[in-house]
Amino acid sequence: MTSQTTLDKAGQGDGPPAGPSEATPGKGLRGHPWFTLFTVAVGVMMVALDGTIVAIANPAIASDLGATLADVQWITNAYFLALAVSLITAGKLGDRFGHRQTFLIGVVGFAAASGAIGLSDSITLVIVFRVLQGLFGALLMPAALGLLRATFPAEKLNMAIGIWGMVIGASTAGGPILGGVLVEHVNWQSVFFINVPVGVLAVALGAWILLDHRAENAPRSFDIPGIVLLSGAMFCLVWALIKAPEWGWGDGRTWAFIGASVAGFLVFAFWETKVKEPLIPLALFRSVPLSAGVVLMVLMAIAFMGGLFFVTFYLQNVHGLSPVDAGLHLLPLTGMMIVGSPLAGVMITKVGPRIPLAGGMACTALAMYGISTLEKSTGSLAMSVWFALLGLGLAPVMVGATEVIVGNAPLELSGVAGGLQQSAMQVGGSLGTAVLGAVMASKVDGDLPGNWAKAGLPPLTPEQAGQASEAVQVGVPPVAKGTPEAIAAKITDVAHDTFISGMSLASLVAAGVAAAAVLVALLTKRGENAEAGAGVGHI
């Protein structure tokens, strides 16, 4: 192995950063930065796509396999729970054994689990293999960032992360469109089978192109108690957020899991100060920019994923669009992320991350405020303006916050830093959906009885009122079979008006979160250790 420039305790090299020519041994395409980026993008695309593409297939899965609503919810929850709990540990595995090996194992496992889901004949097997998808996806994502960090020189790293973020954004937003086409014209199994050829391509490219990079002072042991404590704390937190809409925020079970999570994190933090090679050296968080980047990623995900959650219901249940048409209406958001992410990478390289990040969160806040003004009669053009502004705001945040987190961590902890970045996004998304969902539920519960009475509709029993509220929270009019047309029209108007009032309040809360994130963005700065990247030795 060629010797790496030795890193000091802060993770900075003693010598000048090496360029890409020094980082590649001249063996054809192996280790080439841009081909490395293309390879990891193919793998990452599978994981990002699966976060949203499956939602379109859920009704068909439920019908074909006889699944209940709770079963269908677990198709999504099992995936995100496994992903969120294991991301940081998976990043540590990459730091220990090399990101190339970890990436390839993640791709193979993810593609195999996807194929197994397509062959499953019971909902139990689907959920089990979704857990495996999440675990292998967790191996893949931090390893991809670790490979980019080690391959690209500092002056090109932001552009690489920009393209990486573009792939994630485009895949996430394009999932419902592709899923709708596959389910409508093929079958629900095709949503999972599509990952198999993509995985084969990623493995073939990875075996040919990817070059392993490992820091000399990479960890050589595992903090098993730390892994157990962190995984348990993350599980309790994400589980509470998943179950809170069902149990209620005032339920003792919700707060029992939140309390267990807090206790787990405190014990984990104490243990990390005692172990020789901790899972997450707490000294990482002495870096104010890195800590700010993690908080910023959480706040961004709360505003984006939580706010956008209701927009899909608005498009489909209020405007009556099909899933494919709803996805097409979100193309301005996708398009701006595709265009904006590489441009954000260039801008961050020139002026640093602080201004682009603050500006991006300000645009996100304005976009969420605009979404709060949407009505039943709002046309496609007006929607497109706000969706495009949202994509424009998110692009620099996805790129800049990632660079701030990964670039401010020592090279030997780049996998852990990548896991932190992804975990922050997963927790923020779960938190946003849960908290904004509670805001929506509270608003609907408060407004629906009065709106119902004002419309002159027959009074509801407490049980009927509860069922009606649950339906209205996702924009569905609670119209019973056989209801006269005139009364059904009144119920529909009340349901849509009440849903929109709830979505408006939730969007305003999301806008407030994004506005607070502007202040956090001002604490960020360029990664102090980014220059350590391209001079790594090869194995």
What structural class should be given to the helix and strand makeup?
mainly alpha
The gyration radius over C-alpha positions equals 23 Å
Distance between the termini: 5 Å
Largest sheet: none
Oligomer: single chain
Unreliable segments (pLDDT under 50, ≥5 consecutive)?
1-26, 534-539
Q: Please tell me the overall pLDDT.
A: 81
Q: What is the strand content?
A: under 5%
Total count of strands: 0
Helix content: over 70%
Count of DSSP-assigned helices: 18
Shape: globular
SSE string: HHHHHHHHHHHHHHHHHH
Please provide a written account of the structure.
With 539 residues, this protein is an all-alpha fold. Helices cover 76% and strands 0% of the residues. The chain has helices at residues 20-23, 33-65, 69-97, 99-119, 123-151, 154-185, 189-193, 195-209, 224-247, 252-272, 288-318, 323-329, 331-351, 354-371, 380-407, 414-454, 462-472, 485-521. Helix 3 packs parallel to helix 5 and helix 11 (288-318) packs parallel to helix 16 (414-454). The protein is globular, with a radius of gyration of 23 Å. The N and C termini lie close together (5 Å). It is a multi-pass membrane protein. One of its GO terms (molecular function) is transmembrane transporter activity. This is MFS transporter.
Question: Key terms for this structure?
Answer:
539 residues; mainly alpha; 18 helices; disordered N terminus; disordered C terminus; MFS; cell membrane; transmembrane helix; transport; membrane
Provide a compact summary of the structure:
With 539 residues, the chain is mainly α.
